[in-house]
Structures are given as C-alpha cells and as structure tokens.
Design goal:
Layout (H helix, E strand, L loop, with lengths): L1 H10 L6 H6 L9 H7 L4 E5 L1 H6 L1 H10 L2 E4 L5 H4 L9 H12 L3 E8 L6 H4 L5 H18 L6 E6 L12 H6 L3 H12 L4 E6 L7 H15 L6 E4 L2 E3 L6 H13 L3 E12 L4 H20 L3 E6 L9 H4 L3 E2 L12 H10 L3
Parallel strand pairs: 1-2, 1-9, 2-3, 3-4, 4-5, 5-6, 6-8, 7-8, 8-9
Antiparallel strand pairs: 8-10
Bound molecules: (3S,4R)-3-hydroxy-2-oxopiperidin-4-yl beta-D-xylopyranoside.
(3S,4R)-3-hydroxy-2-oxopiperidin-4-yl beta-D-xylopyranoside binds next to loops.
Amino acid sequence: MRSLIYALATLVPLVVAPAAAQAEPVGEPLTTLRMAAQLRNIPIGASVDENALRDDADYAAVLVREFSVLTPENSMKFDAVHARPFRYSFDAGDKVLAFAEEHRMEVHGHVLVWHEQLPNWLTKAQWTPEKLRTVLREHIYRVVGHYRGRIKAWDVVSEAIDDNGEMRKTFWLEGLGPEYVALAFQWAHEADPNAQLIYNDYGAEGGGRKSDAIFRLMQDLRTRGVPVHGVGLQAHLSVDEVPNPQEVRANMERLQALGLMVYITEMDVSLKLPVTPTKLDEQALVYRDMMNTCLSAPNCKGFTLWGFTDRYSWIPEFFPGRGAALVFDEQMQPKPSYRALIEVLAGH
Ligand code: XIL
C-alpha cells in the first residue's frame, strides 16, 4: 500500500497546485527525490556542508526530505579528523552520522587517502617510507575503526591518477611509492571487513586516457586480490563539456566485468554565470542522462550530488565565474535539473 502511494505520488507532476499549496505547508512537494529513488532502489545522496547543517534549518529539512545518503563534505578528511599527530577528533563527523541515523539515512565515508586537505604536520615533515606507512595505517585503522559497522562504504583512495593517465605526483606517491593504493585498501579492509571500499576520481566517467588508466589500476588490484569493491565517478561536470552517455555506460560495463560496483559520488553540473533558462535546461539534460545511465547499469549502486542547493556549493569559490551547479537554487526552489531527476526516476 505504502509503495502504491509512492508510485502514484511519482506520477503526479512535482509542482504544487495553488489550491494544494494553501492546504499543505508551503513548499511541500507531492513527491521527492528520496521517494522516487526508493522506488527504483537507488540510494540518492548529497554531500553535507557541516556548517549549513548546523545553522540553516531549511537546509536540513530539504536534505532529509530529498536524500537517503549523506557524504560529509569536509569533516572526515585527514586535516579534519587528524589535525595533530596522534590526536583524532571525530566530533564533526559524528554529528553528520548522528543526523543521518536519526533520519534513517546512510553515510558515505569520505575520504581516507587524498592529496588535498592534509595537515602541515604531515606534509611539512620528512618521513622514512616505514614511518609514513605507520602513520597512514594508523590513520586508516583509527578512522575506519571509529565508524566500523556504521559507515558501510568508504572512499578509500581519491584522485591517484592524473589527467594524463599517470600516477599523480602526490605526497603519498612520493612518500610511499605506487603501492600506497593497494596498502590503503588492505588496511581499510582490515579495519572494517564488511565495508565497501571505493576508488574515487573525477574526469573518468566516460572513455579516455584517464578512465583507461583507472580501469587498468582496478584490473591490477582485482587480479592481485586487493579488496577494492567499487569505483566512484565523481561527475563534476559542466554544461559546456558533457561526457557521452554511451561511453559512460561502456565504462560502467567494463568495471562490472572486473566485479566492481560504480557510484556517482559527487555530481554537479556547473555553468558559466549568469544563469539563463536555456542553460538550466541544458543542465537538466546532463543530470537526466547521468541518472538514466546509472539506472540502466546493474552495477551502479548510488547517485550522490556534491551539495544540493546553489546556496552552498564549492563551485563559485573554486571556479570563479561559474556556479548554479546543483538541483535547488539559492532560494531552495527546485530547478529544471531537479524535475529531470524526478522524471527519470519515475520512468518518464
Ligand atoms: C571540496 C569541498 O566541497 C570544499 O568545501 C573544500 O574546501 C575542498 O574540497 N573532489 C572531492 C571533494 O573529492 O572532497 C572536494 O570537496 C571537491 C572535489
């Protein structure tokens, strides 16, 4: 009965009729992404700006209404949890997890090994490979161990391949050599043998050198029995440069042949400001295609946006002149991209 109501709800156009708007609390939609995605069995996620969650009641309400998975945007990164040697602070991440659990949402762990947002005590010191191994192993044990059983999927390694398809020259590669990738997965597995362990990268949704290099890296890890279970396709996209859906689909298929799941982990679709109706329609198409592709791939097990409202997004700060990349606008109103996702999920 419950699912029948949901099914009917998804068939109703999202926009609330004026009469209904008077009866219902203002802004209450008749269906939500969360309901529509539940019907299709696809976890739908958003990254969480921890400050907005604390300070902005609208933000928290929409998050709960629309999403079933949360990725902490910053609070589980190395510099956040391990700002000083041997000192861990999980408070901020714990708050996100408590909020998620209270609202029957999952948390997607982000991120154990990445070359950004590392503390100076780590990057400015000289390490022997042995010492650095110990530091990273302890970090992974502590963080994954703290959330063991409560966080079911982790981004273990992010962005280890550069845009030319080579191993990215990072602090970790320089300190530990290319084996750091396999070691990180092994340690994460030891810390929580039930967690889904993910390699996460951007610019590798479709074909090309980078995507091929990631495929080969995954192939190598799987052949060696390294516990990697999925690939996160970040999908930081732009309306001006869109991956070809057939290529994305083919990429998902070849990863499936390795026994890997895929997750859309950080989708946003930026555009050059100012916003115009045409650009918003183009953006909606990009979201629609990606959701369609994920729904059509049996191994695509999650679809997460990097934020959900243009009120809080990393894009304007990191890509000046660009923005409006998400599915709600700054006033928390749904955009064409939101409606496109609902439509695809409802099978239209
Ligand atoms: C970004 C956050 O959104 C910002 O708040 C932070 O200042 C920098 O990092 N790929 C990732 C994310 O894996 O962790 C990044 O998040 C965006 C790019």
